């Protein structure tokens, strides 16, 4: 698993916006920025839709005021699903990134196999990335939602 002080692995994440589909290289996406990246096991799933993403939507302005250039949500879903979920959650301030094949999640070492529930998914986590390097990493224990929420990250940023 990736650790604090390590560089984010080079990978590709997709994003669908009003301008169309963009395939972001993570080296470029996280370069020269302070980014909050949080991951969910799946778009439209209960905890993700009822608490995790909404918390970042509500606190987006405060997080950005703490010196964050970008807030991004990633899931092992395609960019179309991530865009639709973001629209349904009023997440305009959050970059909704798809890791369709799970390669980014696997490269981080934060993948999990949910078997017939959904296959390979991401563990629930949040991290702060500064110029491509992880400076904060909060990984949830299985079936928990305590350290990757927006409030915890906002506290870590102050």
From TrEMBL:
<keyword id="KW-0049">Antioxidant</keyword>
<protein>
    <recommendedName>
        <fullName>Glutathione-dependent peroxiredoxin</fullName>
        <ecNumber>1.11.1.27</ecNumber>
    </recommendedName>
</protein>
<keyword id="KW-0560">Oxidoreductase</keyword>
<comment type="similarity">
    <text>Belongs to the peroxiredoxin family. Prx5 subfamily.</text>
</comment>
<dbReference type="GO" id="GO:0045454">
    <property type="term" value="P:cell redox homeostasis"/>
</dbReference>
<dbReference type="Pfam" id="PF08534">
    <property type="entry name" value="Redoxin"/>
</dbReference>
<dbReference type="InterPro" id="IPR037944">
    <property type="entry name" value="PRX5-like"/>
</dbReference>
<feature type="domain" description="Thioredoxin">
    <location>
        <begin position="2"/>
        <end position="158"/>
    </location>
</feature>
<dbReference type="GO" id="GO:0034599">
    <property type="term" value="P:cellular response to oxidative stress"/>
</dbReference>
<dbReference type="GO" id="GO:0042744">
    <property type="term" value="P:hydrogen peroxide catabolic process"/>
</dbReference>
<keyword id="KW-0575">Peroxidase</keyword>
<dbReference type="GO" id="GO:0008379">
    <property type="term" value="F:thioredoxin peroxidase activity"/>
</dbReference>
<dbReference type="InterPro" id="IPR013766">
    <property type="entry name" value="Thioredoxin_domain"/>
</dbReference>
<dbReference type="InterPro" id="IPR013740">
    <property type="entry name" value="Redoxin"/>
</dbReference>
<comment type="function">
    <text>Thiol-specific peroxidase that catalyzes the reduction of hydrogen peroxide and organic hydroperoxides to water and alcohols, respectively. Plays a role in cell protection against oxidative stress by detoxifying peroxides.</text>
</comment>
<dbReference type="GO" id="GO:0005737">
    <property type="term" value="C:cytoplasm"/>
</dbReference>
<keyword id="KW-0676">Redox-active center</keyword>
<dbReference type="InterPro" id="IPR036249">
    <property type="entry name" value="Thioredoxin-like_sf"/>
</dbReference>
<feature type="active site" description="Cysteine sulfenic acid (-SOH) intermediate">
    <location>
        <position position="48"/>
    </location>
</feature>
């Amino acid at each position: 698993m990736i650790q604090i002080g390590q560089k984010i692995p080079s990978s590709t994440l997709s994003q669908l916006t009003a301008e169309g589909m963009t395939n972001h290289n993570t080296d470029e996406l996280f370069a020269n920025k302070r980014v909050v990246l949080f991951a969910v096991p799946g778009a439209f799933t209960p905890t993700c839709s009822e608490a995790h993403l909404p918390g970042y939507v509500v606190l987006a302005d405060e997080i950005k005021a703490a010196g964050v250039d970008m807030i991004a949500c990633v899931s092992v879903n395609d960019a179309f699903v991530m865009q639709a979920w973001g629209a349904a959650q009023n997440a305009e301030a959050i970059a909704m990134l798809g890791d369709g094949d799970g390669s980014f999640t696997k490269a981080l070492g934060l993948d999990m196999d949910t078997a017939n529930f959904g296959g390979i998914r991401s563990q629930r986590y949040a991290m702060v990335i500064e110029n491509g390097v992880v400076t904060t990493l909060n990984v949830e224990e299985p079936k928990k939602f305590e350290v990757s929420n927006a409030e915890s990250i906002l506290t870590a940023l102050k």
